[in-house]
Design a protein that fits this description.
This protein is of the alpha+beta class. It folds into six domains: 2-228, no CATH class; 279-384 and 398-450, no CATH class; 521-533 and 547-642, no CATH class; 672-725, no CATH class; 733-937, Rossmann fold; 974-1143, no CATH class. The protein has a six-stranded parallel sheet. It has a five-stranded antiparallel sheet with strand order 16-9-11-10-20, with helices on one face. A five-stranded antiparallel sheet has the order 41-40-39-38-44. A hairpin with a 2-residue loop joins strand 26 and strand 27. Helix 9 (202-230) crosses helix 19 (502-509) and helix 13 crosses helix 19 (502-509). It is globular. Residues 19-28, 97-147, 233-240, 467-485, 1002-1010, 1025-1029 and 1098-1104 have low confidence and may be disordered.
Length: 1144
């Protein structure tokens, strides 16, 4: 009622370019867009200005239509007639308007110097809304003047009920006033805390809060925009008259809610995550209107929406209790009646410990009646969520939150990595997760969830730091006649499409903290040479200097301790301090130089941070600012002592930072492949003549593509002049044809060494080698039973008889010891994808690969237990399509040990998930004939140890048993251990290094020996079409944090002589498969030379071991999808990783 009553007597009308939003929340005065004050045409009989001048009866009639009490209307009118100076002067104001100036709108504004109110006439179109300005004719003048929003009469004109005596609001009294006794926000806060009218007239106070806070924000934006036009920054793009000044329409990060501010919050959070890791849990807290401190302040007839000041303060006090409850945890919060806190535990609790402090169950009503009542009120998902109109969780008839949740006896992760909390009965299936201790303490809704993946930051980007709610749109301007570019005017966007609620306005007026980060983050500036901006500090301030942090970083002491630190690492550990010249230096202080200050000559020193390292990050630079963006990329990954040093890569000083970043591998170079080939040729030897080299290269590529089920034509490559590679069947037969005698001899020799189990299986399988002898076998054997030995003998025997054996494996490492081995995905064309649903082979029935499978007499699948059943079923479907028989009518042999390996179900720890994906759950498992190997071979000389190993595999207690270690070589001092580990001869030439490893509980210190660093180029594959967008400049920071098993890291450090592991299956034929160990021989700019340490016996190799096993590895592109993300990361990096000390 207070808002309606005020509008009956207001001397102006509040309007918005958007709308007043009907909102049923805590404070239901919500508006969109720019706010303005104006009066309507005085001839409009439905407006209070007309009523004041001509017709008070019309005001009474409008009051009756709005069901306003007649006595209240009369009382307000009589009081304003006596007290308000505006009512007395309004009737006189109309007589000052000439007949020629027909008013379109009339408003009242600041009294002229003489103190008399003038008539305000707005002859502009009312469709054009200027931010917070009032137009009026001065006495005797014909031209309009503009009154800014800093007028002290701005508030009493619109809110006569809050300012019935015409008391001046915040603003300038005259043009000669230089300063104000308080800020706008302090003035509004004072009124809310001291003037009782702002509690009694609750809804009107909500409107006042929204109006005045938007008034403050608009004035700040106008000030910032004017300042940008006057003081344009000296960026390259701004200096070029042909390129628009992109900063001119950008709101700076100092304005809370701007895009730059949101980008800073994102990068601050990424910096904390880079230091501490992903958050452990996150919580959201919602205000409870029934809190006693709120209910006690309500007047008769009021509800909580009428007292936003009380609600905000009560909420803030409860939030302080919550933060005090977690004193030792790192948290980040965003608060405005529904804060979100991200908490990092010092030690991550195991999944089994979550049930101790997190609950998703309904407590016992008799044992814990208060908690039962609170859970029923705050943490029960609506059971009519799908039938209720407007339900936000209803999507296509299903709840997007998965309610009702399934009954679960224990907390676990599902296949997608979502946490399913313990719910042991049907009533608990509707309970949302919560912490009972906090629920009892704070008596409000407190949702909690576990952060199971770093992709939880996407929620942070999209929700917490998205800035104020607003309608987003772009303004399209023509930069020049031939190019159209999207230029967004953020000032107009913010003011014209803003969404502001009373609760947010009051919360901000009280200056309550909206974002808090612990630890805090220091942002380091980055600028081009000679372009550092002046600091906004008094020149008389102690330690004042025009030097930026970047320039001081270049001036750090020239010792190895400081020179090896990057920009962020240096300021995270050290800081600069200005001291009197005669002060002695303490321990830990290092003198840099002497500087001239207003207080005389002083010394600049570097000091180690006593409280420990802090979190630092480099200022986010958008890609628009090209060279500055590339300079930032270089500063993030390498130390430097000058701008020229940053541009120097591989002893060559480049002209631009873009060229230096490209040479370092941070950016993709279109000529990278050409450089890599040139380096490989120079490092090895140049073939002659060139035509022969081209033909040999094409033939080698053709053989490799053929092994992958592809061809040169499919890849757009020309055919070689001499066709020596033939079809896949010819390649397979020609590979073994010269060695049939050797193969038969090896098979016969192996048969004589077989034990009874192996010989029986060997003969059993050979009996099936006829056109009608199709069969499926699974050779089951524990570790050390000779499964691989048996399969190798079978391969030799079949191939010696001119037969074709297709050897496949679930992993490349499982078939590396077989000639012509392939992964099952490569052999059968099985696609690699996140979901196993709808797997279908990519091999055409008319391709060479299908022909090879059609002619194969024997198919072997190594480590079948690791494969998921969908993969096996996909291979079976291909075999049936080729020969129209189960498993293609082939003799199909699978082998492995279910005790050792099982399918890895990503993001799940439930045994049921593993069983559901296992091949033993497939309908094909019934077709297998199980052949068992039971006689130990590897531990045949130690029966007791072999028995104990079997008991461990069978989970037979007890696991603890005395094992004699007298036969093991042991050392008693570090010198002897070092000699054993690093060998007596050169580590760079000894292949025995692969047989040695150093087990360490930590990997923290083993990186000191590294020298060369290779950096990946990371992009988001779907960035152009995906809905996923990060704030500009933050993409690289996020992608460098992501780590994926089997994918090289962003920063790959290597040294000549170190041992590395291959990432990816490059060539099974050459032994370059995933996880195989190699030794680094040479480090070049675009390739790394490695020597294969695990010997691969290739029958046709005529080269020496050293020549055969040296390979050049270029950068390749890896693709992976972060867990629970809808976008794909493309990382271009060398296919390797350090294989140094292993965690024990």
């Amino acid at each position: 009622m207070s808002r309606q009553l005020n509008n009956l007597f207001a001397f102006s009308v509040i309007g918005t370019t958007g709308r007043f939003v009907p909102f049923q929340g805590l404070a239901n005065v919500v508006l969109e867009g720019r706010v303005y004050h104006r009066s309507l045409d005085i001839t409009d009989k439905g407006h209070s200005m007309h009523w004041f001048l001509y017709d008070e009866a019309a005001r009474a009639e409008r009051a009756r239509e709005q069901s306003l009490p007649e006595d209240a209307v009369n009382t307000v009118r009589q009081f304003l007639d006596r007290a308000s100076p505006y009512v007395r002067t309004l009737r006189h104001a109309l007589t000052q308007v000439s007949d020629e100036a027909m008013p379109l709108a009339v408003e009242l504004s600041v009294p002229p110097t003489g103190g008399e109110i003038a008539a305000v006439i707005n002859t502009d179109s009312l469709r054009h809304v200027n931010p917070r300005q009032v137009v009026f004719f001065g006495r005797g003048g014909l031209q309009p003047r503009f009154v800014p929003i800093l007028s002290c009469q701005y508030e009493p004109l619109q809110y006569p009920l809050l300012f019935p005596h015409g008391t001046r609001g915040w603003g300038y009294i005259d043009n000669f006033q230089k300063a104000m006794p308080c800020t706008q926000i302090q003035w509004y806060r004072h009124l809310f805390l001291s003037d009782r009218r702002f509690q009694v007239l609750g809804r009107l106070a909500c409107e006042y809060a929204v109006d005045m806070f938007s008034r403050t924000g608009e004035e700040r934006l106008r000030y910032l925009q004017r300042g940008r036009r006057v003081h344009a920054t000296s960026m390259d793009e701004a200096a070029d008259p042909l390129i628009p000044d992109l900063f001119q329409n950008k709101i700076p990060a100092s304005f809370m809610g701007s895009r730059a501010w949101a980008s800073d919050q994102v990068t601050d959070s990424l910096a904390i995550a880079r230091k501490l890791g992903k958050p452990s849990i996150w919580l959201t807290m919602t205000t409870n209107p029934q809190w006693s401190e709120i209910q006690s302040q309500l007047l008769p007839g009021q509800d909580v929406t009428d007292i936003p000041a009380v609600v905000c303060r009560a909420f803030r006090a409860r939030l302080g209790i919550l933060k005090a409850f977690l004193p030792s945890l790192s948290s980040r919060s965003e608060a405005c009646h529904t804060p979100t806190l991200w908490v990092k535990f010092k030690q991550e609790p195991p999944l089994s410990a979550l049930d101790i402090f997190i609950s998703a169950e309904l407590p016992d009503a008799e044992q814990e009646p208060d908690l039962y009542r609170q859970v029923r009120r705050f943490h029960m998902h609506s059971q009519n969520h799908l039938a209720r109109p407007g339900s936000r969780c209803n999507r296509n008839g299903r709840c997007i939150y998965g309610y009702p949740q399934p009954i679960t006896p224990h907390t676990h992760l599902d296949d997608l990595g979502r946490v399913h909390y313990r719910r042991r009965n049907a009533d608990s299936c509707w309970v949302t997760p919560h912490i009972p201790a906090l629920l009892k303490l704070l008596d409000c809704h407190i949702y909690v969830d576990v952060c199971s993946t770093a992709v939880i930051f996407l929620y942070l980007f999209k929700y917490l730091f998205k800035g104020p709610d607003r309608t987003r749109f772009s303004l399209h301007n023509m930069v020049d006649a031939g190019d159209e570019e999207d230029i967004v005017n953020e000032y107009k966007d913010y003011m014209s499409a803003r969404y502001l609620s009373a609760s947010e306005a009051v919360y901000r007026i009280f200056n309550f903290e909206t974002v808090h980060k612990n630890p805090s983050v220091r942002c380091l500036p980055v600028h081009l040479e000679g372009r550092n901006l002046a600091r906004m500090r008094r020149p008389t301030a102690p330690g004042f200097s025009t030097m930026s942090d970047l320039l001081w970083y270049f001036q750090r002491p020239p010792t190895e301790l400081f020179q090896q630190l990057t920009y962020m690492e240096f300021f995270s550990r050290y800081y600069f301090e200005t001291l009197p010249l005669d002060d002695p230096l303490d321990r830990g202080q290092v003198l840099i130089t002497e500087v001239e200050t207003n207080q005389g000559l002083r010394q600049k020193v570097v000091r180690r941070r006593a409280a420990g390292d802090i979190v630092t990050r480099i200022q986010v630079i958008p890609l628009h600012y090209k060279e500055q963006f590339y300079l930032r990329a270089l500063l993030q990954v390498r130390p430097a002592s000058s701008f020229q040093d940053l541009r120097t890569v591989h002893d060559h000083c480049y002209a631009t930072y873009h060229e230096a970043a490209t040479a370092l591998g941070l950016l993709r170079d279109v000529s990278e492949a050409e450089y890599a080939i040139s380096e490989a040729i120079a490092a090895l030897r140049a073939p002659s003549p060139s035509d022969d080299a081209t033909n040999l290269a094409l033939e080698d590529i053709a053989r490799h593509l053929s092994s992958q089920g592809s061809s040169l034509a499919q890849c757009g490559l020309p055919e070689p002049q001499r066709h020596h590679y033939g079809s896949e069947v010819d390649l397979e037969l020609n590979f073994f044809h010269p060695h049939w005698a050797v193969l038969r001899a090896r098979a016969d020799a192996a048969r004589t060494r077989m034990n009874a189990d192996q010989r029986w299986i060997f003969e059993r399988i050979l009996r099936q080698q006829d056109p009608h002898g199709a069969a499926c076998f699974f050779v089951d054997g524990r570790a050390g039973r000779g499964k691989t030995f048996l399969m190798a003998a079978l391969c030799d025997r079949v191939r010696a008889d001119c037969g074709i054996v297709c050897v496949t494996g679930t992993t490349a490492l499982s078939v590396i010891h077989y000639e012509r081995g392939r992964t099952a995905h490569s052999a059968f064309g099985i696609p690699v994808q996140d979901s196993d649903e709808g797997l279908e082979s990519k091999i055409s029935l008319y391709r060479a690969r299908a022909e090879l499978i059609r002619h194969a007499q024997l198919i072997i699948w190594e480590e079948l237990p690791i494969a998921e059943m969908a993969v096996l079923e996909c291979a079976n479907q291909l075999l049936q399509d080729i020969n129209q028989l189960p498993f293609g009518g082939k003799t199909f042999i699978a082998l492995g040990d279910f005790r050792q390996v099982a399918p890895v179900v990503r993001g799940s720890c439930r045994p049921s998930a593993t069983l559901n994906h296992s091949v033993r759950s497939s309908y094909l498992w019934d077709h297998f004939d199980i052949l068992r190997l039971t006689i130990p071979i590897r531990y045949a000389g130690d029966v007791a140890y072999a028995t104990w190993v079997d008991q461990v595999g069978d989970v037979v207690l007890p696991f603890e048993a005395p094992v004699p270690v007298r036969h093991l070589r042991h050392l008693e001092n570090m010198d002897g251990a070092a000699r054993f580990l690093f060998l007596d001869d050169s580590l760079a030439t000894s292949p025995d290094a692969v047989r040695r490893a150093f087990l360490s509980p930590f990997n923290a210190r083993h990186t000191n020996y590294k020298e060369a660093a290779y950096y990946s180029h990371d992009t988001i594959k779907e960035m152009d079409e995906s809905s996923f967008h990060l704030p500009t400049g933050a993409e690289a920071d996020l992608l460098t944090m992501l780590h994926e098993p089997g994918v090289p890291p962003h920063n790959l450090s290597l040294k000549v002589g170190c041992v590395a592991s291959i990432r990816g299956n490059l060539s099974i034929e050459k032994g370059l498969v995933k996880n195989v160990r190699v030794q680094v021989v040479n480090l070049l700019a675009n390739v790394v030379q490695v020597r294969l340490l695990q010997h691969n016996q290739l029958l046709t190799s005529q080269a020496t071991d050293e020549e055969m096993q040296i390979f050049c590895l270029p950068r390749i592109t890896f693709e992976f999808r972060p867990h629970r993300a809808n976008w794909t990361v493309q990382r271009r990096q060398l296919p390797g990783s350090d294989a140094g000390p292993r965690r024990g």
